[in-house]
Design a protein that fits this description.
Elements (H helix, E strand, L loop, with lengths): L8 H5 L7 H8 L18 H4 L4 H21 L5 H21 L2 E4 L30 E7 L8 E6 L2 E7 L5 E5 L14 E3 L3 E3 L6 E3 L5 E3 L17 E4 L2 E6 L14 H4 L3 E11 L16 H4 L21 E11 L7 E12 L2 E2 L5 E8 L3 E8 L4 E12 L2 E11 L5 H21 L17 H8 L20
Parallel strand pairs: 1-12
Antiparallel strand pairs: 2-11, 3-4, 4-5, 6-7, 7-8, 8-9, 10-11, 12-19, 13-14, 14-15, 14-16, 16-17, 17-18, 18-19
Amino acid sequence: MRRGPAGSCRAAARAPLQLGQRERRRACLARPAPAAAIRAGGGRAASGRSRRMGPVWGALLWGCGAALLCLLLQGAGEQPRGLLLLLPLAALAGALVEIARRPLRLLRLPEDVGYYPARTLRGSRHPGQQLPPVYPNGWFRLLDSEQLRPGDVRHVAALGEHFAVFRGLDGKAYVVDAYCPHLGANLAVGGQVVGRSCIECPFHGWQFNGEDGKCTRIPYAETVPECAKIKVWPSCEVAGIVAVWYHCDGIDPTWQIPELEKVSSQKWVFRGVTEHFVNAHIEEVPENAADTAHLSFLHKPSFLSGADLRCINSKLWSFFKHSWQAEWQPEPKPNTHCSVLNVKHSVTIFGRHFSLLALSVSARQVGPGLVFLTFKHAFLGQGVMVHSITPVEPLQQQVTHRIYYQRHIPAVFPKFLLWAESIQFERDIMVWNNKRFAAKPLLVKEDGPIQKHRRWFSQFYSENSPRLTSHKKTLDW
């Protein structure tokens, strides 16, 4: 797990388009930014990781306390051998409790997963011909809610746009254009939240309301021009994420993200998050739902054999197999922007069914950028995984998975689910990162409704949707 400084490694993950892999890596090794700094272009606050004491530090604190107590007892001339033996065990138990109770956070850099050999194929792979538009219309995640505290401002580069995301003192999140209409300063780089819902430009102090974008104050001017305003993007907060509505024609939202009642009421609690980057067209990722045939091949070998496609058929784990039964269908009106994949998962060990890992999953995709995977287990309860995909570059996607589970179920189980899912997902990434988009695939009837899915997904494109028209024969744009 990579836990580099939020202002260095994570900034490199969102480097501008003209930076290559070598420059990104060099930026990753640069001087760490302050803890309060933003993650340039990605918007992850350092506070989410650096301000929390990790389980290793917790274990060290327990151990130091135990050792200190031993020294004090010895200095007092006492030798309670039984107590001295129990103290290290108590330290170990405390460390395990600390690890078990904390949410899992598995955050991968773009070059961490899916390259063979490492970090070379992105510049030598042909992206394919007749690519669909690269930025579909819909709701997309920009940040996790915990990354944006009252008074925080974050810069996020995604969907070919630059956003300033801030939380007013009223507790509401606002999304506006990052660049001040006055002289183009970036509001998210040094900008301050003023009052309940305004953001102040760091260059000349112009203040803009996050509700309607109007300029409310110019400190050195007697009057504020009526035309002085900044673009406000439709946004919302659902299931712990801050999402923005993107439409290439500027059309207002035509549907909303459904509220997860059990998450908002905290009946289901947050148990972990993973983050990955996929170097492929955005449509490749949700198309996996309709490609049911790949489940019984790519995802049949045990997750214990890892994500490297060269090793997943290892004889060491050949006794452990996954079994999948899946069916994908688009939803009827009025929810034509949604589709559902129903999956029944089971495990066989030495050819015998193992019910402990049998799951029913209903994956409901809402628009092009969000999927809600509801898990049901026979005796280990229910939960939901919020899958988001956001284009940070024309052919690079940021994918996160946040898991919420019933409060009374031990946290170890949902964290195990999230970890196992991340391994299976990384197998897909290794395929996506090294394949090209096939506009006219050669299919057989057993492949699943892939073409049906493409027709369904095409509703998220419009005539003016951006396309990748001027690229080389590589993905090094």
